[in-house]
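Running this now, will post back.
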Amino acid sequence: MIALASHLPDWNALHFLRPEWLWALLALPLILALALYRQRRSDVWRTAVDAHLLPHLLAAGKRRRARLPWAVLLGWTLASLAMAGPSWRQQAQPMFQASAPLLVVLDLSSRITATDLPPSRLLQARAKVGELLRARQGGQVGLVVYAEDAYTVAPLTDDGSNVALYLDALSPDVMPRDGQRADRGIDWATRLMRQIGALRGQILLVSDQADDEAALAAAQARSLGLQVSVLGLGTPAGAAYRDGSGQIRQAALDEGSLRAVATAGGGRYARIAADDSDLHALGVLDAREGAAAQRPGEGKQWRDEGFWLVPPVMLLALLAFRRRAVLAAVLAVGLLPWMGNVQAQAPPAAASQPVQGTLWKRADQLQHQRLAEGVQAYRSGDFANARKQFEGIDSDAGWYNLANTLARQGNYDEAIAAYDRALALHPGMADAVANRAVVDAARKRKQSGGKGQDQQKPPQNGQQKQPQNGQGQQPQQGQQNPGQGQPQPGQQGQPKPGDDRNPSSPQPGERGRDGQQAPPQVEDAKAQAQADEQQRQRMQQAMQQAREGKGEQDGKPVPGSDGSTPRQREEQQAVEAWMRRVPDDPGALLRAKFQLENERRKREGR
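Update: finished.
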């Protein structure tokens, strides 16, 4: 009796695991009406014989067919309830997870530039996250940043060194808008955890303050089996900082609000420390600690009791047994191999048609892919393919890279027009202005038909001639200014993709969060200006010598070379090295990525 009672349903706990199947019950009236209509229409005796005489005239088979609609109705109801998954009891479920994933949610608002933690909160936060990635044992780890909105820097991965690659690029400048919405950062981390199906996990919020909405988001994450801990960034005294609008404000550590978030999320709070004591206090160094924190009732799962309704449905299915039904089933099974053979013999899709791997991509993702393919073709010297990829991308990045490609092909007029289109979409784009001036100078020299320019041959073997800046050829390498070095890709004044408008390779000349050009970091401006002036004078002298036709020995091609003389190669390298004077900006890729994501969210109304 006790064993039987354990199988009886507990009506108070009865619920459905898949309640969406209950919508199928709405089709019952339609099925019943259709079955009755077909039955009455097929029975011609009802129009000729009185109803009270029909039972004496009709055979038993007719009466059995009269009960068929009701059997179908009952079978549909039972099948719908079985698919809905009725459940009223739980059973033990072995759930073993050796480690819990960790998502670090870092505050990248303008408040992180405060200097109460020397040298700054930003550098302290980078160092602490890097220390966490190096010391954490096991488990997946990812990185999310937030300001006005939250974005994924690195998804959950088993290799923390991949996440550490992005740390140097983190700064408030990469965020599309300034703000401090910790609740959105926690919600976004919760969403990433649910996407991977994590039964439990840890979220580490790194910030200096939070609000009530962040506490509510932490409580919601806790209800889903996640643990939200907080690392306080800053000091109670605080320090001044400049917000996104340029106003001077004060940023102080609000430990009360951060403790409230940690309490709501079922986690711990600790203030940032010089050693790893804060990470030990938070319990984020060992992934097994997060796995041990289980919510109540974990380890049990509601049992699907729908299988009890399957035998009645199978009995009712016997009423529909017909020879023709068996024949149809045999034919259907026999057609399966033939259909698979036809599918295998289908011709492959044309290269111009979208393949299965691109059907799911959005327009911005396809544009990003075309930009990346165009940059790759450009760098390999395939300018025709690069031009094909860049054409049709109506954005500042598309027109800018198309102009660079046209310039490398010698189409200076078209290149200048493309630069103008890029500047119309993004006024004040520093790289476009500089490159346009270089190409315009090259176009004027080409039109003037100078003797020195006519004698120069275009580089061979894919070494395209760079548009000059109108100041002449370069001297030999031995005369280069210290720090010029070998050519590096993507520098100011060189029409080559790979700057901040090229999302595949972060390069110099990046834009700030407000669309302004990031100021170059020059340690000694006066010495730098003097070095530039000396370099310009040497370039003018070299150009003058080339125009006067001096150095006949230098004008002889080297046997077995690409057609250019050693002096020409040295001069070209010097020109490229002089153009590369803008410091690198590692945050360009993240800035472009977050900007695209922000535009997509605006289109979706989020």
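The longest strand covers residues 150-157. More later if anyone needs it.
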